[in-house]
Design brief:
It is built from ten helices and five strands. By secondary structure, it is of the alpha+beta class. It folds into two domains: 12-90, DNA polymerase, domain 1 (Orthogonal Bundle), CATH 1.10.150; 102-221, Cytidine Deaminase, domain 2 (3-Layer(aba) Sandwich), CATH 3.40.140. It has a five-stranded mixed beta sheet, with helices on both faces. Strand 3 (168-174), helix 9 (184-199) and strand 4 form a beta-alpha-beta unit. The chain is elongated. Pfam families: RadC, UPF0758_N.
């Protein structure tokens, strides 16, 4: 009776080559970027340790340096590498939106805006301008504020939309505190923008407030 040969260890690189990148777990993808482990710790063990410590890829890639310094064997070099990976992903999504002019789904919109705004240290107000088929024309960081406030001018949004003949817009801004629940000021400025846009027959499809690992959609709440 013949025994089946034991297959060699199938690491994340081999799995990617065999089945494609989408087949990899978050931990396996992280292991590929880390490349090597530490003394007495394999790269997969290190990747799993990091992932579990921060709870998610988003938590890991947006964490400050001091949180890495609490993990034994993980230093500034690893932190720098991971921050570069996060920035590369953000720039990729930005270039894809600009070049492909896609028809955005709610999930695509949320993921793009979270990538753009989650790590900002002050409030940024963004607008995505779209044509009458809801394809992206342009996205713009229109207003920049402080840690807890950003001054928004609805007429400037309308003026910019008219320049590019936009038929619809999606609004977004971040809360650097990490909590995404909209304030009364957020609701009031949204109502003002909607009124200004309605006057020029421009639809406001949504306003997303981006926190740290969370978001609130005005459309999903039924406020738009």
């Amino acid at each position: 009776m013949s025994r089946r040969k034991k297959k060699p260890w199938d690491g994340p690189r081999e799995k990617l080559q065999r089945s494609g990148a989408k087949s990899l777990t978050d931990v396996e993808l992280l292991a590929i970027f880390l490349r090597t482990g530490k003394q007495g710790v394999t790269v997969m063990e290190l990747a799993e340790k990091l992932y579990n410590h921060f709870g998610s890829l988003r938590g890991l890639l947006s964490a400050p340096l001091d949180r890495f310094q609490t993990i034994g064997g993980v230093g500034e070099a690893t932190y720098t590498q991971l921050r570069a990976i996060a920035e590369l992903g953000r720039r990729y999504s930005e270039s894809w939106i600009e070049e492909e002019k896609p028809l955005l789904s709610p999930d695509m919109t949320r993921e793009f805006l979270q990538g753009q705004l989650t790590d900002e240290e002050r409030e940024i107000f963004m607008v995505i301008f779209m044509d009458n088929q809801h394809r992206v024309i342009k996205h713009s960081r229109m207003f920049s504020g402080t840690l807890s406030h950003v001054e928004v001018h609805p007429r400037e949004i309308v003026r910019e939309a008219m320049k590019m003949n936009a038929a619809a817009v999606i609004l977004a801004h971040n809360h650097p505190s990490g909590h995404s629940e909209p304030s009364q000021a957020d609701k009031s400025i949204t109502e003002r923008i909607i009124k200004c846009c309605d006057f020029m027959d421009i639809r406001v499809l949504d306003h997303l407030v981006i926190g740290r690992g969370e978001y609130v959609s005005f459309a999903e709440r039924g406020w738009i």
